[in-house]
Design a protein that fits this description.
The complex is a heterodimer.
Chain A lengths: L8 E12 L5 E8 L12 E6 L3 E6 L9 E6 L3 H8 L5 E8 L12 E7 L3 H13 L7 E7 L8 H9 L3 E6 L9 E2 L2 H8 L6 E6 L2 H13 L7 E4 L15 E2 L2 E2 L6 E3 H5 L6
Parallel strand pairs in A: 7-8, 7-11, 8-9, 9-10, 11-12
Antiparallel strand pairs in A: 1-2, 1-6, 2-5, 3-4, 3-6, 12-15, 13-14
Helix pairs in contact in A: 4-5
Chain B lengths: L2 E2 L8 E7 L3 H11 L3 E8 L2 E7 L24 E7 L3 E3 L7 E6 L1 H15 L5 H7 L2 E6 L24 E6 L2 E6 L2 H7 L4 E3 L2 H12 L11 H6 L5 H6 L7 H5 L6 E6 L4 E7 L20 H13 L15 H5 L6 H6 L3
Parallel strand pairs in B: 3-7, 7-8, 8-9
Antiparallel strand pairs in B: 1-2, 2-10, 2-11, 3-4, 5-6, 5-13, 9-10, 12-13
The chains are: A alpha/beta, B alpha+beta.
């Protein structure tokens, strides 16, 4: 970590991919640090991307540290993200990080990994499934369940279709029927109910809109998952990223520093329900 | 002159002396002459505010407690973190030594709590740059204010945790140093050792318990009452104005924002958990959308969540009671949890 944790590293945008077009566009930015080699991070950690004159926003790193790139998938929703969406390859931004507590992927060795994502919530899960794919000998079965409002809203669409072709256990869904859609139609928790993943020796990681997480948790419990088998990664408004500004605090936990990854066992021991 | 001191564990040496003259004003003059940035109470109408002073005359010590807390000396209401144009131009840091003259025991304890927050884990370099150059000259309380309850937290208003402590007892000026920095500072003054009778006078003064309000904290009850409708009742008249957090000596939340498009400053400024924007996410989800949730957060933050670190984040200064426009009284609220 840098000496003054409020001062960002300089980074350059080296590639931009359109993930989702339309009124709620999502782009994935591949970035490269300018003055230094890539930093070490773990799946689940995030960075504050900084644009002077606009501010800073937290994004979970969208790819696994086993891959050579540093990627962030950004939904256009505020000042910083709107500016990012205007930026071109070659433009400079600031990056502070890596920040936060990652997924305990070392502890999960030997277990089956189940990711359940909704919308842009797929981002941290991608950092997990890429890792598990790259270290497949260390883990049991990998199951990816992912859904969005429509097929156009699915992020990493091409990557996921390719994984299906390669024989990976990927279950996609969209909320409403569309011509030519070959996969499940309905909400993500319903897809989980349909697939009935085995709870034994499995870690389930879920990320998406709060309502999706809430219902998914119930479905997982019905399937026999215990609270310490379920993980999520939280989103909160964040400014400092280092547990000082107080914005992302839940009880005495700072999501930026003590999270964003929490087990459901940890979350349910808190008074303030998520 | 040096005696080992056992009652306050952090303190190595203490010197106890008598000064003939206006010590506080002379202290300010001395500090200013040596280039310190000095924060002291300034009288404005019928109240006092801690402010930076440029002369001893500006300061006035006829108060029980200034309206704002002394934390502004180490954690100002706003400060520049980074000056930028296309990239970082400058990272400003406090170079000057800082002194607070006239701090009371409650605010002095609050700075220790802020230390825990800003200096543990990731070190906040801006806070640290001020804190490590800080000298505190405290005043003991003769009388408590109507909403004071510092003794509930084991704070002795007659024995502040500061580098130098000033007391006015029986018409005499007692000055004690409780740190090396304080001892060095006192070496600038013409002091005499206290006599036996004076020592007794001072000790009796320090031992005296003041008649003040008392807060009853039942942590188990707090834990059980989180979902109680009590919090909605408590918050009925809350205006979400945030004055409680603004005046609180232990509140530390802040916002960071950029001012200036092509050229400007990245600023941090105090923020408040009472404001809905504090936690509003870009997705429009707000984990504390209701004012009673935000008010509850403030109380749990001070008396329940902070306990994981071992301290209540309240020092009993009573400012939030004095100035709440809705009459929300932290002592009654916490003591009456159900």
């Amino acid at each position: 970590m840098m000496q003054n944790p409020y001062v960002p590293y300089k980074a350059q945008i080296v590639e931009i991919r359109d993930e989702v077009r339309g009124p709620r566009p999502i782009k994935t930015f591949k970035m490269k640090l300018v003055d230094r080699e890539r930093f070490d991070y773990k799946s689940g950690q995030g960075c504050l991307v900084s644009i002077f004159g606009k501010g800073e926003s937290w994004f979970t790193i969208a790819n696994s540290p086993t891959r050579p790139d540093l990627e962030f998938s950004v939904l256009k929703t505020g000042k910083v993200t709107a500016k990012l969406h205007e930026m071109k390859v070659g433009d400079l931004v600031g990056i502070r990080g890596p920040l936060g507590r990652p997924f305990p992927l070392d502890e999960w060795k030997g277990m089956n990994i189940l990711t359940i994502g909704g919308g842009i919530g797929q981002t941290p899960l991608r950092a997990i499934y890429q890792y598990v794919i790259d270290k497949e000998n260390d883990y049991g079965d990998l199951t990816i369940i992912y859904g969005a409002r429509s097929s156009r809203d699915l992020v990493y669409r091409e990557e996921l279709f390719k994984l299906i072709e390669e024989g990976y256990n990927v279950h996609l869904s969209i909320d409403n029927p569309e011509p030519g859609w070959k996969y499940f139609v309905g909400f993500v928790p319903d897809n989980v109910k349909r697939i009935k993943p085995e709870a034994k020796n499995t870690i389930a990681i879920t990320c998406g809109p709060p309502i999706m997480i809430k219902i998914t948790l119930n479905v997982l419990k019905e399937l026999g998952f215990k609270e310490d088998q379920i993980y999520t990664t939280l989103e909160r408004r964040m400014k400092c990223g280092i547990g000082k500004c107080g914005k992302c605090r839940i009880e005495s936990y700072y999501v930026c520093r003590d999270g964003p990854v929490f087990s459901y066992a940890e979350l349910s021991s808190m008074l303030e329900k998520i | 002159m040096r005696t080992s001191h056992s009652s306050q564990s952090l303190i190595c040496w203490v010197i106890k002396m008598i000064y003939e003259g206006d010590f506080l004003k002379d202290a300010i003059s001395n500090l200013l002459a040596r280039g310190y940035k000095v924060f002291a109470p300034v009288k404005l109408g019928d109240f006092h505010l801690f402010r930076e002073v440029k002369s001893a005359e500006e300061a006035d010590f006829g108060y029980i407690l200034p309206r704002n807390s002394a934390k502004i000396a180490v954690f100002p209401e706003n400060e520049v973190l980074i000056k930028y144009s296309s990239w970082i131009d400058e990272i400003p840091f406090e170079e000057t030594r800082i002194a607070i003259v006239g701090i009371k025991a409650c605010d002095a304890k609050a700075i220790k709590l802020l230390d825990e927050h800003f200096l543990e884990g990731f070190v906040d370099p801006y806070y640290k740059s001020r804190r490590e150059k800080l000298l505190t000259v405290a005043i003991t309380c003769e009388e408590p204010g109507i909403n004071c309850f510092c003794q509930s937290f084991g704070i002795n208003p007659r024995k502040p945790e500061a580098d130098v402590v000033f007391s006015r007892i029986g018409g005499k000026t007692f000055v004690n140093a409780y740190s090396d920095a304080g001892k060095d500072f006192l070496s600038e003054f013409n002091l005499r050792n206290e006599g036996e009778e004076e020592a007794r006078l001072r000790q009796n003064f320090e031992r005296e318990t003041l008649e003040m309000r008392k807060i009853e904290i039942d942590v188990e009850k707090l834990k059980k009452s989180f979902e109680s409708s009590y919090w909605k009742e408590v918050a009925v008249n809350c205006k979400s104005c945030g004055v409680c957090t603004y005046l609180c000596p232990t509140c530390f939340c802040f916002d960071i924002y950029d001012e200036g498009e092509k050229k400007g400053v990245r600023i941090r400024a105090w923020d408040s958990c009472q404001f809905p924007l504090h936690t509003l996410e870009s997705s429009s989800h707000n984990p504390r959308a209701e004012k009673w949730q935000r008010l509850r957060n403030r109380f749990y933050d001070k008396f329940y969540y902070a306990l994981r670190k071992g301290d209540y984040y309240c020092v009993g200064c009573g400012r939030c009671i004095d100035f709440c426009p809705a009459g929300i009284d932290i002592v009654s609220v916490i003591s009456g949890v159900r």
